[in-house]
## 1
Amino acid sequence: MTHLLHSPFFGLFAIVAFGVMLGAVRVRGISLGAAGVFFVALGLGVATTLSGKSWKLPGELTELGLVLFVYSVGLQAGPRFFGILRRNGRSFALVGIGSTLCGAAVAVLLGWGFGLAAELTAGLYSGATTCTPALASVLDAVRRTTAPEDKLALASVGYGAAYPFSVVAVVLIVQFLPRLLRTSTVDAAAAYRQEEARRSPPLEECAFRITNRNCAGRTIDELQALHVSNAVICRIKHEGQIQPARPDTTLYLGDVVLAVGTPDELAKLEALLGDVVVESLADPTGNVTSEQIVVSRRDVFGRTLRDLCVWERFGVVVTRVRREGIEFAPRGDLRLDPGDVLRVVGRRPDIQALASTIGREERALYETSLVPFSAGIALGAAVGHIPIPLPGGLEIQVGLGGGAFLVALLLGHWGNTGPVRMYVPHAVKQFARELGLVIFLAGAGAGAGARFVPVLQESGPQLLLAGALVTLATIAAGTLLMFALLRWNVLYGAGALTACMTNPPGLAAATRLADTDAAAVGFASIYPVALISKIVLAPLIFMVMQLLT
């Protein structure tokens, strides 16, 4: 039994099981969520310390959990991150740098006021903003001063003192945000979806009667070559007969065509073809039909619709494509990704032939290719260890978590690593995110619990107070910038606030506020800026405090 208690895997998953149960308990609508795992591990660490024993989980497990979590978040947010970055890059810089800079200023003032050592103050800032890479940069800065080992340990003590309150405060405050801002999460989710729909307008169907004599006698292919509209013509009614829109189909005056596209593109097509009519183009014989095909054959991943000659070879029109929950009108240069859902119109035998070419292997969509997935994590670890030189001879690193996150954003955006197509099923990303989070929380809580009692004995409650004030100052600054100045959506802002604190448990709480990806996208938007800012600011705090003390 003693051997079992010292098994890291037994301890890890026992903590996870009890922590998840604790996190599910709700008091007036508020729960700890995944942070319950942190508290169970923290309590166990404190209990073993008080009993005169030492216990904690291996640091490698904690790092594995962090990497899995941020890597999965990056893959989830990558498809939309760069588009948002182009639109709101300055706002991200303002929020990420402004909030972290405010926390750093408060840390310096409190460190000077309480007479804290420079190493202790810099470590306290890292813990109060839950940023382990910032602590690493502080330790590197302290080592460069040839300080004795006890001075080096002070940074870790400050980190351990401030970390627990920061984790819990962010989780609770994020859940209180909608009430604090007097905003309904349902209304916020609806507003977010409307904004996304405005940027990616929904597709509509519209029928037109050919009245423009310049279009009469021309084929569909010739009209498409004019590039007047991106709307897709899919069906034609000629002399009472319904037929699919093939490239060589000729249009005549009085024909009715059905097109699919955004309202703006349909308006362009109206100006070219003729009047809008209300007329059904459904084929009563069932020969011309519309079906959905899921792209699942590996030999078509990454190939374009033009390469496959879908229209010319099969006589089938692709009217819509749904990818990552977003529906859009296709173009010939669209590259097919695993899991793309194509809405096609054509004759039933032609659709069946196309389905045999690009689909019919949906079981493959539930499989993850571990080669690109693992290679991405390995590349992230390498990026995290790249030294970034700063003035004064200092070097910083974004760390394992930061490197994995940045690489995952790129992979989530481009989805291509040379000849290998990067595809991770949604369920796999969700599982990796949740598993990584609870492993990280268990390791972080155990480590904090082992240092909690010694910190209180050495530095007293003033260190805990200083850490709490730095945490609250950073949160307050981020909240004011996002909601008072920039008027962000509360769900998007909740995710961004957890990124200001580089706080994974907070993101888990933010994603539970509503069934949207707003929190994950907000987190991804701010996280790189906040992470790099803290890595730079933490050693600067150490240098400033050296001058003041």
## 2
Amino acid sequence: MSDERAELLKDFPQGGSTRSGGRWRLVVAGVFLLFIALSLWASFAGIIDLGGWHRVAPPLVAIVLALLTGRLYVSLVSGVLAGGLLSAAGAYEGFFSWLGRGGRRAGEFVANTVYDCQGVSWGEFRWNSFDWVNFGWGNFDSDNLKVLLFIALLMPIINVMIVGGGLQGVAGWLMRWAKSARSTRLVTMISGLVIFIDDYANTLIVGPTLRPLTDRQHISREKLAFLVDATAAPIAGIALVSTWIGYEVGLLSELGVGGGGYVVFLNALAFRFYCFGMIAFVFWNCWSGADFGPMAAAERRARAGKVLADDAVPMASKSMNAAHAHGQARIHAAVAIVPMAVLLLVFLGQFWVAETGRDLLAKDPGAIVSVSGWMEAMSSVSSSALLARAAGVALVAAIVLALGLGRIPIWAMARAIGVGLKSSLMPLSVLILAWSLKGACKDLETGAFLAGVLGDAIPPLLFPGIVFVVAAGVSFATGTSYGTMAILIPTAVPVAMELDGGYGLITMISIGAVLDGAIFGDHCSPISDTTIMSSVASSCDHVHHVRTQLPYCLVVAFLALSLGYLPAAMGVSPWIGVVAGAGVSGLLFACLRIFGKGDKSTT
């Protein structure tokens, strides 16, 4: 080992048996749980009045334990159990009875993430009653099932592309532009911005495709996960056509403002300071190669040859993480590009095969090239079903190309599919637990409580900024951007209209604040499905991803608040705020580049 690499590695643990600071973290976690338990007991016993703050306990337990202990499953299960016990506290009939009720309630949260179990008997679980068009049984909450099916299909697609030599071919093609650490980071960012149509598709395409290149350039998996995550939700949230916009426009349409939901969305677009700020922040970070906080430590470790920490537990199976092209494979980029193109094209094409899309085309064939046409087609169809079907077609395409063009043996193909299915078990189980925690939050009305408590008695000029903070807090605590939007758009926006005396500047800024604050939590909450999928796509330890990314997200959120929402409410042009935020981000990384320990291998 060279002296330089030895110097770089001296700050990192070599054993890898435990997470850093494991003992004191467990002690702190134990004290924290004891404090929460005693507080809840005192509240239920009438000794103190928590004023409803017990509703925040489940996400608080999950998030704090995840960050302290690094044990994701234990943290999520603890949060779900806390939600079950609190949900059952109203029917208290003794300690053991309460424990039993709480355990059953937690189990219901898990079951309800997959289907609506109320009124469904096991006799209804028959293949001949399955709706193959909509992917579900009658009472099932099939949207979650479709997302799970999409992931279960996509992981074998990725592994088939790897074993068939497709991703190696793409990596070789991208090497024309990704010849240094800087250019590799920029290629990763641009790839994330180009696939703006859906954050799930964005995350799970960009991560596996660019991972070989970032590994070769000694870029940490934490940095890859950040680049993937930071260009998924933010770009999908502001793109004029995406699966997000249909949902956002649907909520905004309910406000009854003249011009319709899409016009309201466009009016608020200039006030999306967090999304624009994060994109600018990522660009300067990629260009400068400078980092701070936990990310800087991860990058120093990666430059010493270790893209993963010793104690990392990547969000994929070891066999998937170590997958490579088969020895007999013909290395060809088409083995990866064509299935991904099929995935995207089939996904987009289905909007126009659905009833609303067909009606639009029948009335106006030109609707397919208009933004309003895409918006109307997207707003009427669940994207999760479309993704699942597209993944099924893409898997067939990947198999055909790997066998025909890649010329790998059939047994290697079968093994690749098996490894891909096995690797999907971890993200599937984590997603189910994260959704279960969201179910507990919904049952306890955590989001509505936080919005109500934090949203009272706010001055008009401060209202948009506080709405952004409230939305960010709710989305981070619950892990759901859609849920945060559903809570705050009907509650906070009417208040803004009252302050405005109608639909005016404060209302437009507040709408942007709700949408951006919701994306903040979706982007960086440890219980958010997009955050989890970014860890999966990058084969990164999930807790490491959250720890390294969170400081960056907080910096951008602070800039959005101080240079965006507060000045905009005072009448300053929003574009001045966007430019100012981008300029401050660039200045920050320039200073880190000059005075800090940024990556010097950028040429």
